[in-house]
Amino acid sequence: MSLPLLSARLGKRQAALEYKWMKRATSPIPLDQMLARRVAGEPLQYILAEQPFGPLTIKTRPPVLIPRPETEHWTIRLAELLHPTATPARPLSVLDLGTGTGCIPLLLCHLLPAGSVRAYGVDISPDAVNLAAENAALCGLSAPADPSRNSFQPIQASFLDPNFPHLNLGVAPPFDLITSNPPYISWPEYVRLPPSVSHYEDPKALFGGPDGLDFYHAIAALVARNDFLNPGAVVVVEVGDGQADSVQRIFKATAQMNTEIWLDPWKKMRTVIARPGI
């Protein structure tokens, strides 16, 4: 009975595709229960408990933000940019702000040469940090110190704390790369989100303040500190639709950085790249 209901909700083509994925899933959840949950609006990624991200399979569960294809796209492009300079002789120190599932640093670790990345991710949510640690283990990238491997360590902390990162967290600046897919949904957008997002994903991972820009101000203030970035460092942040120009202005005004914009596969301005020195 649930498949016709799913078709009515999603359309026949999308429903048939998702039904095929549910049938193939290794989940212990019975198919009829998966269908009922999807008809009720739960995201498929939470039902299947995983999401492809590049060549990786990332474990997912509510309320941690589900990795999106646009994030995958710019992470792969970033790895291509970094590949010529990533070397075990001087591993890149990477900090992912608001790491969620850990998908961004884990994919960078997977794509860059072995031993060339020491990545850390911070998130205020214990659910996110626990899930990111599980994903690191599943990807074989947990962080004991084996210099022949890339590694990722998630840490529970708020990068909005005025004392961050000098909080005895086991990681300290300077960094070679800062990445972030921060909360960027404005209040007018948040109240219009579909229930499949607003009822399941953590509001703290979505809502970026009245205009959606609160976290970009915080990140720009962090990277403006004299001791936060190594020479030649790169800051990469995902932005919401229509925010790229505002985010560029924030990084230029607060941190005196050069910026450029990358488009996503749908030709939207999705990623702001910032480097020290105007």
UniProtKB/TrEMBL annotation:
Entry-linked Pfam families: Methyltransf_31
The keyword Metal-binding is annotated on this UniProt entry: no
GO BP annotations, alphabetical order: methylation
A GO CC term attached to the entry: mitochondrion
Entry keyword set: Methyltransferase, S-adenosyl-L-methionine, Transferase
Keyword match Lipid metabolism: no
MF GO annotations: protein methyltransferase activity
Domain of life: Eukaryota
InterPro entries the record matches: HemK-like, Methyltranfer_dom, N5-glutamine_MTase, SAM-dependent_MTases_sf
Span of domain Methyltransferase: 93-141
Protein name, entry field: S-adenosyl-L-methionine-dependent methyltransferase
